[in-house]
Design a protein that fits this description.
The protein has 14 helices and no strands. The chain is an all-alpha fold.
Length: about 280
């Protein structure tokens, strides 16, 4: 997924600098042993979450797993989310999509109706997105594909939590059969800075465009996305932009360039600055 849960990862990483340096301490002030199970006589669930975050970012993922499991079993959605991510990616554990699915399901089940401005909301909305992706693609032998369920899960995250990744996924689901809904969801995500949504919004608007002005609006969004794209998504965004730029008449190209520069100047001036050669 593109740009998935950068915010949640940042929040979890921030636990490291919240006065948590040093060894994890039990209630008696003695260091806890990472090679045995953590229990209430050692750490509270919140302290276990913090210890797990510190162990994880220091590279001791086995100790992190122990702490995070205890925290997740005792109501900490951040811990359950991190475990889901670890199992989904095979990060410090054997890759296991079903375990990841179970952790994300736990979060949705226990916290799906939490306030969208709650501290844990980024982790909850991310769990919805991950769960929706599993329903959309299925897990061999365990979770059958269920597009209707995926749409339902994405819609909750997109509407209730305002999650840009969920809005993007809904746009993709609607793009081939309901252009109006696709534009609606892509636009919401694009305005939040979701680069993939900006590119897909541009593609959809260009295809729908009945005038040079409307096509230029589509090419503008593709240009905005291309100027910001990096990493794995840069390849397909660049290819998309080149495809539509090549078939556009010069007036459309010029209009799109002007609109894109204006948008970037207002929203991402750092991108324009980076393009100016040093003197």
């Amino acid at each position: 997924m593109f740009q998935r849960m950068t915010k949640a990862g940042t929040v979890l990483g921030a636990l490291i600098v919240m006065g948590l340096a040093g060894n994890a301490l039990a209630f008696d002030g003695q260091p806890t042993a990472p090679n045995r199970s953590i229990g209430p006589e050692d750490l509270s669930p919140t302290e276990a979450l913090r210890a797990g975050a510190r162990y994880y970012y220091s590279g001791d993922k086995a100790a992190a797993l122990n702490s995070l499991q205890y925290a997740a079993e005792n109501g900490q959605p951040m811990a359950a989310w991190k475990l889901g991510e670890m199992y989904a990616k095979g990060d410090g554990v054997a890759e296991d999509d079903l375990k990841a699915f179970e952790y994300y399901s736990q979060i949705v089940r226990e916290h799906g109706e939490d306030r969208p401005d709650a501290p844990d909301a980024p982790f909850v909305s991310s769990a919805f997105v991950a769960l929706g992706s599993y329903y959309l693609n299925g897990i061999d032998g365990a979770v059958p594909k269920n597009e209707a369920r995926a749409r339902q899960v994405f819609t909750h995250a997109a509407s209730y939590f305002g999650d840009a990744e969920a809005q993007y996924e809904l746009g993709r689901m609607y793009q081939d059969n309901n252009h109006r809904m696709a534009v609606r969801w892509y636009n919401l995500a694009a305005l939040k800075g979701h680069i993939g949504a900006q590119a897909r919004l541009g593609e959809t608007l260009y295809a729908l465009g009945s005038s040079d002005k409307k096509k230029a609006r589509g090419l503008m969004w593709m240009t905005v996305a291309r100027q910001q794209a990096e990493g794995p998504e840069a390849s397909w965004i660049n290819a998309m932009h080149e495809q539509y730029f090549a078939v556009s008449p010069e007036p459309v190209r010029q209009m799109a360039r002007s609109l894109a520069d204006g948008w970037l100047q207002q929203n991402r001036p750092d991108v324009l600055t980076a393009q100016v050669p040093s003197q």
